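Researcher: Go.
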Amino acid sequence: MQRMASQPAARAAVWGRLIVFQPTPTLIRGILYPSQKAAAAALGVHYTTIAKAVEAGTQDRVGVSPRGRRIAVPVEIDGVRYRSMSEASRALGVSSRRIAKMIMKAE
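Model: Structure:
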């Protein structure tokens, strides 16, 4: 797999039989981090997540939304605006599935 021009290949120093990898500067959303571990700490993800994203060329999407969570989409039902379908379902006392069906019918 090819690396992007902004992502230098990992550097290694050989001392005897020991290979020591040097930190790889990593560019994510216009911010240059001194290493993948530093980027991971700043973005609140594990450093292997950064390494895999760099390899796949998707590092600009790392840390945007928490894994397994969806970003809330505002909805409007009967003229009332809710921050999300979950909030609407709690306020109206119906299931989230029912809210989704109501929105689908309205469209």
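Model: The longest helix spans residues 96-106.
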